[in-house]
């Protein structure tokens, strides 16, 4: 509430408009967050369970490197299962 030039109480229309805009922003943000939470996140993986099993079966062979196994299976060596000591 503000005082008018006459000294009487008045209403600040700009403050009401700012409040309404803020409320619309909050509503839009909450709707966007709800929509994002309903979607599956992240990229689909290339490395399936079958690829992991095949890689683990090939790892014990000393003639094969991790890079060659990854190339054979069509995945990045970074995503291939690493041997555990």
Q: Any chance you could write out the topology, listing elements then pairs?
A:
Layout: E1 2-3, E2 9-10, H1 13-38, H2 49-58, H3 66-73
Antiparallel strand pairs: 1-2
Describe, in short, the structure shown:
The protein has 85 residues and is mostly helical.
Question: Could you please describe the fold and organization of this structure?
Answer:
Strand 1 and strand 2 form a beta hairpin. The N and C termini lie far apart (73 Å). The chain has three helices and two strands. It is 52% helix and 5% strand. The model has no long low-confidence stretch (mean pLDDT 82). By secondary structure, the protein is mainly α. The protein folds into two domains: 37 residues, no CATH class; 31 residues, no CATH class. A two-stranded antiparallel ribbon has the order 1-2. The radius of gyration is 30 Å and the shape is rod-shaped.
Assembly state: single chain
Strand content: under 5%
Summarize the main sheet. 2 strands, antiparallel
User: H/E element string?
Assistant: EEHHH
Overall mean pLDDT stands at 82
Number of domains: 2
Radius of gyration: 30 Å
Shape, per Cα inertia axes: rod-shaped
């Amino acid at each position: 509430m503000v005082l008018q030039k006459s000294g009487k109480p008045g209403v600040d229309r700009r403050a009401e408009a700012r409040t309404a805009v803020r409320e619309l922003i909050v509503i839009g943000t909450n709707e966007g967050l709800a929509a994002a939470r309903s979607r599956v996140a992240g990229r689909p993986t290339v490395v399936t369970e079958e690829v992991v099993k095949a890689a683990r079966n090939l790892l014990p062979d000393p003639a094969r490197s991790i890079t060659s196994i990854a190339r054979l299976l069509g995945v990045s060596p970074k995503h291939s299962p690493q041997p555990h000591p």
